[in-house]
Amino acid sequence: MNIGIVCYPTYGGSGVVATELGIGLAKRGHKVHFLSYARPQRLNEFEHNIDFHEVAVNVYPLFEYPPYDLALASHMVNLVKYQKLDVLHVHYAIPHATSAYLAREILGDMGKQVAIITTLHGTDITIVGSDPSYLPVVEFSINKSDSVTAVSEYLRDETYSKFGTTRNIHVIPNFVDLDRFKRVERSHFKKAICPDGEFVLTHVSNFRRVKNVSHTVEIFAKVIKHGIKAKLLLVGDGPDRVNVEERCRELGVCDHVRMLGKQEKVEEILSISDIFLMPSGSETFGLAALEAMSCSVPVISSDVGGLPGLNIDGETGYVCKLDDIDAMGDAAISLLENPERLKSFSDAARVRAEMFELDKIVQQYEDHYIRTLKKVRGTVEV
Ligand code: GMT
């Protein structure tokens, strides 16, 4: 198949899923075209069967807000026309599903056809999409896609409850490359960060408000106060970083916290981690937690959204009430003070991650493309 994948290129779950999916599809022999305003973060080397098309938005003095969604729709039209795309798979509804709808209408006037698949990821439904300033357009665009997928049952149900849509939403979960995300020996790295054999607590995110990164510092401070030697590794960057730094100063833990910024080889950091913290205020699936679990790192998370469906409480980690810093701190202490429990949780985390193996889920997307093409064309000719 000729497949167009549209996503945000930045440090965020939807872009990661879109990119890993495109790479997986290309390895299966499909021709994949990525479309975004910059090269997606995980598309960092040459890949056979993959092209990247940058969407440039021309600025004009009249535009206070340059219309990216229109530029994207025009690029979609050209891509379908000249690269003969069968499928246009858009990740994150805003504005991608709307641009895709517009492109399909324009292509229809030219006598051309493309199947539009929208994958809902998270805040495109739970926070931004359900804001009244976007809701009618997002609802319309979801209803007009040829098929829609969501990354968890939780997100599917939220979409039904927040939007007036009765259409079928197919759940295809996030996935992980088990060969890349596995625990590897990195003792030199561990020694450099933890010269006194400290435990390592890790958090990875885009430091948006919804991630509650300051809570990781509060949980960590509780662990330190209890007398456990530990380091907190904060990976990623974003709008909340200054508040997080401030919280570190307030709690007097700066010497034990390392702000590592955006990292390419997250699996190496996860390989030296003992606990992964995800105290998010909203999380439809929790891809970063899945990647940690794949590296045999137990997760302490809040109980929101899709997290209880991923992180099995008392087995692969602990699921605590949202904002309950005390419970999350106690959970961390109970694991770090009991090496046998830590080992058994760490093994169980990897076993759980194996259920979300990349190939298995890429196959589900491929099957979904074929079903959607059948619906659109009445038959599949690829
Ligand atoms: O908020 C983010 O971390 C980014 C956001 C996105 O859509 O780019 O992530 C969402 O999609 C991920 C991949 O499907 C999910 O694993 C995350 O749980 C989800 N984030 C939220 O719901 C906050």
Q: How much of the sequence is in beta strands?
A: 15-25%
Count of DSSP E strands? Answer: 13
Query: Helix fraction?
Result: 40-55%
Sketch the topology as an H/E string, one letter per element: EHEEHEHEHHEHEHEHEHEHEHEHEHHH
Q: Cα-atom Rg, whole angstroms?
A: 22 Å
- Flag low-confidence runs: none
Q: What is the makeup of the main sheet? A: 7 strands, parallel
Q: Which structural class do you get from the secondary structure elements? A: alpha/beta
Number of helical elements: 15
CATH topology of the largest domain: Rossmann fold
CATH architecture grouping of the largest domain: 3-Layer(aba) Sandwich
Structural shape = elongated
Key attributes of the depicted protein:
Rossmann fold, six-stranded parallel sheet, seven-stranded parallel sheet, binds ligand GMT, alpha/beta, 382 residues, elongated
Tell me what the structure shows.
- It contains 15 helices and 13 strands.
- With 382 residues, the chain is an alpha/beta fold.
- It folds into two domains: 2-175 and 358-376, Rossmann fold, CATH 3.40.50.2000; 187-355, Rossmann fold, CATH 3.40.50.2000.
- The protein has a seven-stranded parallel beta sheet with strand order 3-2-1-4-5-6-7, sandwiched between helices. It has a six-stranded parallel beta sheet with strand order 10-9-8-11-12-13, sandwiched between helices.
- The longest helix has 20 residues, at 358-377.
- Bound molecules: ligand GMT.
- Ligand GMT is lined by residues 12-14, 17, 92, 121-123, 126, 151, 174, 206, 208, 210, 282-287.
- The site of ligand GMT has 20 residues, from α1 and α4.
